[in-house]
Design goal:
The structure is a homodimer. Helix content of chain A is about 35%, strand content about 30%. Chain A has one domain: Gcn5-related N-acetyltransferase (GNAT) (Aminopeptidase, 3-Layer(aba) Sandwich), CATH 3.40.630. Chain A is an alpha+beta fold. At the A-B interface, strand 3, strand 4, helix 3, strand 5 and strand 6 of A face strand 3, strand 4, helix 3, strand 5 and strand 6 of B.
């Protein structure tokens, strides 16, 4: 397949949001996506963008994306977080995800980042096997914790009163 | 206890590194910390700092720290990641961790972040119970994946040859 991988531009954001929603459905959270095309445009472009984004494109269609940003490890130093690696369902198995993954890791390597991190669902064994085959570690002891916007609001209100 | 919580300054970094190493030992990874005081100073201060940091201080001693930075959720938008919340072992149980945690969540709330995320070891039930009591969720399905610097080097070398 003659797809190309390039940095995203603002006009890609509608296709990008479709892929984000496709992944949310795959992860059994179809209603979790509240972000909009305008959010993606304003957060990802201009001064101090909140993320970087590669897209895989063929015939003006976005087949896949890799969205990432910087993190900081107090053990190792500057790190990259790969937030989303998504390939359209009908285009899986063609090496597109592999190529996007390589592109992010190449960016991290070239820019001297000390770690690349991401999260994966424990039942997504296809993805886990792929990551391990590239030399990544998947940890069983660590748990992801999150405070969502509503709980944050409740917690602060309770503490401040 | 009359400790105060304030933003960190560069001269705190030696004490901060001691606390980071104390946490690494608690997490059974005493040799995992390769970062230096100079790294923390250059990464955390000046233009585009890689992290923000609150310290709890009493009589010119740093009793605890909370280190955090921005992330990006493709579901919710701008988010905060709480990388480290550490209190000196001899000063635990005095509300210092609670106060630092509040301070980070207050920052997130005031600045309109849509989520606060962090990671916790599954055997650290004291921490997990505390987080849950504040309204946070601790997910069992998500796994943390990481590519360390050496594996990254190997992977890129293999792919590029």
């Amino acid at each position: 397949m003659n797809y190309s991988i390039r940095k995203a531009i603002e006009t890609d954001m509608s296709s990008v949001l479709n892929l984000i929603k496709e992944l949310a459905s795959f992860e059994n959270e179809p209603n979790a996506v509240v972000i909009t095309v305008e959010d993606l445009k304003s957060h990802g472009f201009g001064k101090n963008p909140a993320f970087k984004l590669y897209v895989a494109e063929l015939d003006n269609e976005i087949l896949g994306i890799a969205l990432f940003y910087e993190r900081y490890s107090t053990w190792k130093g500057k790190a990259i977080h790969l937030e989303d690696l998504i390939v359209q369902e009908k285009h899986r198995g063609k090496g597109i995800g592999n190529a996007l993954y390589y592109k992010v890791l190449k960016y991290a390597h070239q820019n001297n980042f000390k770690r690349v991190a991401w999260e994966v669902l424990d039942w997504n064994t296809t993805a886990i096997d792929f990551y391990k085959s590239t030399g990544a570690k998947v940890f069983s002891e660590w748990r992801v914790a999150q405070m969502d916007e509503k709980s944050l609001e409740n917690y602060i209100e309770t503490k401040d009163n």
